[in-house]
Specification:
This protein is an alpha+beta fold. Helix content is about 60%, strand content about 10%. It has helices at about 5-10, 20-35, 70-85, 85-90, 95-110, 130-140, 160-170, 175-225, 235-245, 250-255, 265-279; strands at about 45-50, 50-55, 55-60, 110-115, 120-125, 145-150, 155-160. β2 (about 50-55) and β3 (about 55-60) form a beta hairpin.
């Protein structure tokens, strides 16, 4: 089972404690695309006796599948609740439990989330712009900043920030998946830190080697010209030290030289040797 499937399985295993929560879940499920079990439905919907009326078409409620943990009677009660409720106000004015339930329904219907091993990406595709705007508002109320893009005549709400996706997983009630997601975030962060450190060390090593080669060439030139032995003692000693340790860093040369000389002192003498070689 992929990561999206695992999150949706967690939602399917959740048991709502309140009928208004379950009603919000059903609204989220229906409003995202309108797809339920045997029928594809879109638009506003209402309840009348044992039927749901959608765009004037009567569909039997037993044709609808909502949540495996909620029995058939609760489906009828939820649809009766919805049929006599101003849906927009109910969701927008609802408490956090209502908004979380709405989000769960929308994600179960049309959501997907990428395995954090590969990338950070959460999205829900909404077929109706009004419903998309409602879901954006719900996410905002829950502390999540979602962005949108139009794709295949749908509005796709998406989040790419890892910490916000982790928050969404918690809101969806997928606790094991939240822990897994955060574990992968830590692993990825540690890997990135290691890569940055290695890259930095590699760059510094390359810089040290490049400088060492330039200094060695300058010393060799002075030697070929017969001028190496003419250097004053402090420059001559550093030159000989560099020839013996072509790959050493300035700090290492300073430690080898001793006499309390600093890294900058070694560098100053080597720069002076380069200047003399270029004359």
């Amino acid at each position: 089972m992929n990561f999206t499937g695992r999150v949706k399985a967690a939602i399917k295993n959740y048991e709502f404690e309140r009928i208004d929560e379950y009603s919000a879940f059903v609204i989220g499920f229906l409003s995202s695309t309108g797809y339920v079990y045997k029928e594809t439905v879109r638009g506003e919907f209402a309840k009348k006796d044992e039927y749901i009326i959608i765009k004037g078409e009567e569909l039997r409620m037993e044709d609808f599948y909502f949540h495996p943990k909620m029995d058939e009677d609760l489906n009828y009660i939820a649809m009766d609740f919805i049929g006599n409720t101003d849906i927009g106000k109910f969701i927008e004015n609802g408490d956090m439990a209502i908004k979380r339930a709405f989000l769960k329904g929308a994600f179960l219907s049309q959501g997907s989330i990428t395995d954090p091993k590969d990338a950070y990406h959460f999205e829900i595709a909404i077929g109706n712009k009004t419903e998309a705007e409602r879901l954006i508002k719900v996410l905002s109320d829950l502390g999540v900043n979602a962005k949108t893009v139009e794709r295949d005549r749908k509005t796709v709400l998406y989040v790419k920030e890892g910490s916000e996706i982790s928050d969404i997983l918690t809101l969806l009630g997928a606790i094991p998946e939240t822990l897994y997601f955060e574990e992968q975030m830590v692993i990825k962060s540690a890997r990135n830190d290691t890569n940055r450190r290695v890259n930095c060390e590699t760059a510094n090593l390359s810089k040290t080697i490049s400088a060492g080669v330039k200094q060695t060439h300058a010393i060799e030139k002075l030697k070929e010209d017969g001028r190496l032995e003419l250097l004053d003692e402090s420059l001559y000693e550093v030159a000989i030290l560099r020839l013996a340790n072509p790959d050493a860093s300035l700090k290492e040369l300073a430690m080898l030289y001793g006499h309390g000389i600093s890294r900058s002192g070694i560098n100053h003498r080597l720069q002076k040797i380069i200047e003399l070689a270029e004359e």
